[in-house]
Amino acid sequence: AWSRSEQSGTIGMSDEVASDLLAANLAYERRFEHVFLICATGLSPEQMLAAARARLANEPDVEEQVVRAELAKIVALRLAKAVAP
User: Fold this and answer.
1) In whole angstroms, what is the distance from residue 18 CA to residue 49 CA?
2) What DSSP string runs through 49-77?
3) If you placed Cys at 36, which of 5, 28, 40, 45 could pair as Cys (CB 3.0 to 4.6 Å)?
4) Containing H/E element for 29?
5) What is the dihedral of CA 12, 42, 62, 33, to 10 degrees?
6) Would the pTM count as exceeding 0.90?
């Protein structure tokens, strides 16, 4: 449920953006051999697409650091939700 909520920015995106985001995700998976990971909270589909495209240019070691930073953001958000009253 948290994941769906965090990715709610993709609801209602245009077919063109959805297609472009799928293509960027597939290209990312081919390049880095894992799924594209981003802390999507508060991001529009266009922002996620721009990030995916930009990160495709990263060297693998740089992208590994970016992924760790994104995971840290996701964990921090989820921990805050878990301990919220």
Assistant:
1) 9
2) HHHHHHHTTS-HHHHHHHHHHHHHHHHHH
3) 28
4) helix 15-32
5) -40
6) no
Query: Measuring CA to CA, which residue among 65, 13, 68 is closest to residue 44?
Result: 13
Sign of CA dihedral 63, 68, 69, 71: positive
Spatial contact of 35 and 63, defined as CB atoms under 8 Å apart: no
The pLDDT of residue 13 is 86
Q: pLDDT digits over 21-77, tens only? A: 999 999 999 999 999 999 998 899 999 999 999 999 999 999 999 999 999 999 999
Q: How far apart are CA 81 and CA 59, in angstroms?
A: 33
Q: Give dist(CA 28, CA 75) in Å, integer.
A: 22
What is the rounded CA–CA span in Å between residue 82 and residue 27?
A: 34
